[in-house]
Amino acid sequence: MTVFTPLTPDQISALLAEHQLTLLHQRPISEGIENSNYLLEARRANGIPVALVLTVFETLPADSLPWFIELLHRLQARGLFVPAPLGGTQALMEVAGKPAFLVPKLSGHHLARADGTQLATLGSALAQIHLTQAPENLTAPPNPMQQLATLVDNHLHRLPGPDRARAETLLTRWQQRLPTPVLCHGDLFRDNVLFNGQQLTGLLDFYNAGEAPAEYDLAVTMNDWCLDAARRPVPALETALLNGYQHVRPLDMAARMRLPLALAIAALRFWLSRLGAEQPGEEVIGQGSKDPAEFEVLFRLRADAL
């Protein structure tokens, strides 16, 4: 959640005033690569303190954001721990010429490593997302498969020749007989999930969400959560996540057969997106893009396993 758009206390205070809140403290959140985020401490009119996150959208067009507002409220209504924007259908705001949301800060912390119980819980939550109907009659953002196609068009040529040829072959296989899509998170990495002990307390950053094959979303999740310290796949962790998922939403045989290919495609997607991420400039607070080499190695491992 790198900060690309620096904001003054006065700018943030003006946003909070729309919700009858007073700013007490602010600090930028310096992880991630897409949007600008600030952790805020504020006070309600009755004196009760409240912790919030302000997200300033750097690339998503404003006309697609009502889709995300509706999505987050649908997921919240389903009982999932998601940060639904303040203000309901009027949640969309503007600051520094860019669209923005205010959402509650959820409790919990990010896990460096997850055990089997935590992964089963995560799998169950992912299945609940997949069972949720995507918003209709609103301008939808590019879905995960459209995002993949754009990344392929823009960055596949940057891969070494043998990797590029292998990727082209796997993409052709992947695009044959795509199944009926479901609502996917698209980016359910460890830094987008909060736990308090064994309890899952937060699912964050749905801004890559959209309809895609369920096995693709499972693969994205496995490719971050189910690796050892050397970033090698751990079958026992994959099984724990998959068992938790299937307890809520069983996969059919075709999806299970396609999962190994999905693991390679998901690794390719994040290799390409990290290659394409802009490097931090003078006005950027935080780490900016992440190392593409991590997914370069993982893509080769997943492709070799097919």
Automatic annotation (TrEMBL):
<dbReference type="GO" id="GO:0005524">
    <property type="term" value="F:ATP binding"/>
</dbReference>
<comment type="similarity">
    <text>Belongs to the pseudomonas-type ThrB family.</text>
</comment>
<keyword id="KW-0808">Transferase</keyword>
<protein>
    <recommendedName>
        <fullName>Homoserine kinase</fullName>
        <ecNumber>2.7.1.39</ecNumber>
    </recommendedName>
</protein>
<keyword id="KW-0067">ATP-binding</keyword>
<keyword id="KW-0791">Threonine biosynthesis</keyword>
<comment type="pathway">
    <text>Amino-acid biosynthesis; L-threonine biosynthesis; L-threonine from L-aspartate: step 4/5.</text>
</comment>
<keyword id="KW-0547">Nucleotide-binding</keyword>
<dbReference type="Pfam" id="PF01636">
    <property type="entry name" value="APH"/>
</dbReference>
<dbReference type="GO" id="GO:0009088">
    <property type="term" value="P:threonine biosynthetic process"/>
</dbReference>
<dbReference type="InterPro" id="IPR002575">
    <property type="entry name" value="Aminoglycoside_PTrfase"/>
</dbReference>
<keyword id="KW-0028">Amino-acid biosynthesis</keyword>
<dbReference type="GO" id="GO:0004413">
    <property type="term" value="F:homoserine kinase activity"/>
</dbReference>
<dbReference type="InterPro" id="IPR005280">
    <property type="entry name" value="Homoserine_kinase_II"/>
</dbReference>
<dbReference type="InterPro" id="IPR011009">
    <property type="entry name" value="Kinase-like_dom_sf"/>
</dbReference>
<feature type="domain" description="Aminoglycoside phosphotransferase">
    <location>
        <begin position="26"/>
        <end position="251"/>
    </location>
</feature>
<dbReference type="InterPro" id="IPR050249">
    <property type="entry name" value="Pseudomonas-type_ThrB"/>
</dbReference>
<keyword id="KW-0418">Kinase</keyword>
